[in-house]
Amino acid sequence: PAWLRRLCGQLLSERLMRPNGVQAVVRGIMEGTGVGLSAGVAGGAGAEAAAVDWRKCDAVAKILASCPQQCLSLEDYYRLVCPQVLGLLHIQDKATARQFQRVAATTLLTMAKEHPQLAEKHLLRPLLAPLLQCAE
């Protein structure tokens, strides 16, 4: 029903914009869909599992890249969410790092396509800051 969809969207949006909300949402979605964060891609079903894995990462990235209706501005959403997306690149646990990095990379690409100026400001500049500092 529409009311349930709205309520779930509102709860998801509220969680995303809290500290560590992106990581919690990514972890919840990736762990709750069957393949799981620590599932390996070995054996005969490896290619199929990898495809499912990529589809899940793409779906999560689309969720992260979409500014919720409840958010007052796209700028505010990017300001709150983008540092958390970059934080997904620094997960230490090897079992989860690969999927979190896939989600972060796909989210970055999606945001850069949809809103290049905001993505540059909130994702690309912070990501490339150490490289730019060395180049100077």
Automatic annotation (TrEMBL):
Gene Ontology biological process terms from the UniProt entry: protein secretion
Domain (TANGO6 HEAT repeat) ranges: 16-135
Pfam families from the UniProt entry: ARM_TANGO6
InterPro entries: HEAT_TANGO6, TANGO6/Rtp1
Protein name: TNG6 protein
Species: Nyctibius grandis (Great potoo)
Protein's gene: Tango6
